[in-house]
Amino acid sequence: MATKLKPVDAVVVGVGLSGSILAKELAEAGLHVVGLERGRWRDTDPDFAMPHAHDELRYVKRHELMQDLSRETITFRNNTNETALPMRSLGSFRPGEGVGGAAVHWGGLTWRFLPWDFETRSRTLARYGSDHWPAECTSQDWGVTYDELEPHFDRFEYLYGVSGKAGNIKGKIIPGGNPYEGPRAREYPNPALKTAYAGALFKEAAEKLGYKPFPTPSAANSQPYTNEYGATINGCVYCGYCQFFGCEMGAKASPQTAVLPNLMKQSRFELRTRANVVKVNLDSAKKRAVSVTYIDSRGREFEQPADLVLLTSYVFNNVRLMLLSGIGKPYDPAANSGVVGRNYAYQTPSGVTLFFEDKVFNQFMAAGGLGMTIDEFNGDNFDHAWLGFIGGGFFQAATSGSRPIEVRPVPRGTPRWGAEWKHAVAKYFNRSFPITIQGACQSYRTNYLDLDPAYRDAYGLPLLRMTFDRHENEHKMSVWITNKAAEIGKAIGPSKMTVSPRTEKYTIVPYQSTHNTGGAAMGAEPATSAVNKYLQSWDVPNVFVVGASAFPQNGGYNPTGTVGALTFHALQAIKTRYVKRPGPLA
Amino acid sequence: MDEEGSRRRFLKSVGALSAALPAAAAAQHAGHASAKSEKYMFLAPAEVTFLDAAVARLIPADELGPGAKEAGVTYFIDQQLFGGYGVMAKMYRQGPHAEGTPQQGYQSPLTPQEVYRAAIAEINAGCAKQYGKSYDQLAAAQQDEVLRALEEGKFPLEAVPARFFFNMLLENTIEGFFSDPIYGGNRGKIGWKLVGFPGVAAVYTHLVEKHGVPYDALPVSIADILEGKAALDEHGHPKHVLLVRKD
Ligand SMILES: Cc1cc2nc3c(=O)[nH]c(=O)nc-3n(C[C@H](O)[C@H](O)[C@H](O)COP(=O)(O)OP(=O)(O)OC[C@H]3O[C@@H](n4cnc5c(N)ncnc54)[C@H](O)[C@@H]3O)c2cc1C
After folding, report:
1. Which of the two ends of chain A, N or C, has the fewest CB atoms closer than 10 A to its terminal CB?
2. Model ipTM value
3. What is the crossing angle of helices B140-151 and B162-178, to 10°?
4. A277 CA to middle of ligand 1, Å?
């Protein structure tokens, strides 16, 4: 049935953030690369053009740029005693669809995970002993260290023109930056964004309390910037339509602004849109991928043979395609064996909202990553000895765009509707701002991804099933660090303050973040990881699985800076070693 | 210069953002878009009557200004129900269906179209039974009572859980009050004016560090731009016209 196509050297499944970079680099290195993207072609002009780009209903509430769930979704349950049901509408997270992936409508906060994050298990055991380790926690070391990744973080930040202030250059602490970050080779490529009023007040209060605030690193470029691919990213104009939106200015770094102008000129690269990959086909020994099968917009099935298969289809499809194709042993939580689907984790967001009677903040003048941050309570930057949990998160006074359908905070106790609600909304829409916390989330034996036994996608294939809840470690952490954020909030002097730690059962309904991680975790041991430190499948070495699916657990940051670093790390191994001598790299 | 009555304001362009636009501003300002083009596509007259009454309680007209009814929220809901949202175009609809836990979210086999149709009929029937009147005929306090009962799940519905319908109605009402007027709600930019939201954004580069300075711009909608009622910069951002306090 399937039409068999001419073989190519490499096939990239999903042309989003990771896929676009890998395709560009491998095509330039001489490989014939085909990119298969299930969504459509999208570009700054005309897709994100004014004035329609500034339409909150369309982009935030009707999910214009996001995955079409009518064709494929996931199913979800909190634990194995429940029956998973389909996520019928987008809520907690909002994956992308179409060229550029979720990196079209991302917020642009571009972090490096801490050195500690890559060695969570060994460093925790060394500092606190095994008594401190959370029950059932399967968090582990990544098999790669911060120092190994540093050049790749650097490369990604310079590709995306990240705006920020270094805090540690080669071990030297730089005032104004994050003193807790791992040492970096050089300053950020662009100066930090401007400081909004919320950030200025937060900075002053945090400094008084002895903390070291610094501007949040952001892929909204603070000035026009031309990267190593010759692509020019514009300067941000703080329009405030950033996260959930495409950028009409081409000022938010994305595949469209940073990579595609170059990629689309590569003569050895071919992009096929509306090409939905449904399977990676293996040889009879299940040791080698021979091709991928995809279905186009007319329902035609194609088989694309390739020597190298790169899965870059975001966390969910990376894991789902492995399971559908039989790449690696599926995780079995009862036996605690198998690896594919293991160590799914998420984020533990929380926050504090400050309300004022006499100050206006114009929070609609904003950028996705506009904010002032402290990192004192992230990772293991603080002593956890008496706290009974591990991990933390960064605190940020965020000015990421207040649009009134979604962002209209009112003090706790305000009714949800009626005259009193209306008064509170009118008063506080412009007289409030949040301190947000991107809390970490450890991995547990009970949290995993597998194939759903009941529900199917538009092609009749099983949906991915998510079984997930945060554990006591996350709840304790959230309470403790959110109270720390509240101390800063209090020092700023609001008339009212709402403190919202995350302690309830995980729900798939309200938006939290599209920071899903794991399921194809990396590591040093094939028994506990699906891919090795180069993101290469242990079982099928001509398949690389790239993305946050490789995170063995999630840190207290947004993921994409680390996804970018892993992408370049894998790329280097493929380019310098694998291509010359295909086979296992570790 | 246009006096704005009691608030003693006059229109003035933003110095930093170039020339004044009295003509454009006046045109924009006059735009309390009329209801003339509102032809209902999905809702039946009795449903319009119900929603006009209900949304007027959710976001009432009061001393701060008009409410959801005046903002055209009923018409907004009609347009949404008739479009992709109303038929769950981008949502997963396959069965089997089960109610699930609150954490599992929307599980109804009914589309928003079907939910509104069924729930409004049930609520009116319930009101007739309890008060001898349809919902819209009740006194405001009774209307609030019904809404609260729905919100708390105490007004039983058959087609969907009462809370489910209430939350959908509240969410759609807020959307209709604050979304771009191009969708038929937020008429005259009532919602945006209430909170001081400027709508389609201008370039704010030179303003973001003006800490604590109110930004009282005449809100700009997508239609204003499409109709040539707002002056634009080279990237298509409107040049906002500021309302400046005289005193
Ligand atoms: C609203 C939002 C805000 C965010 N904000 C931030 C932030 O501020 N900071 C941060 O660090 N991160 C943020 N993220 C996360 C960030 O967008 C992702 O980490 C990043 O895009 C992941 O890159 P990726 O290449 O793995 O996946 P993507 O960029 O999503 O690309 C995956 C691509 O694969 C395609 N695909 C999927 N399945 C198939 C298939 N079977 N066949 C063919 N193609 C397929 C998809 O259509 C998509 O184009 C945000 C995400 C969202 C949604």
Report:
1. N
2. 0.97
3. 120
4. 16
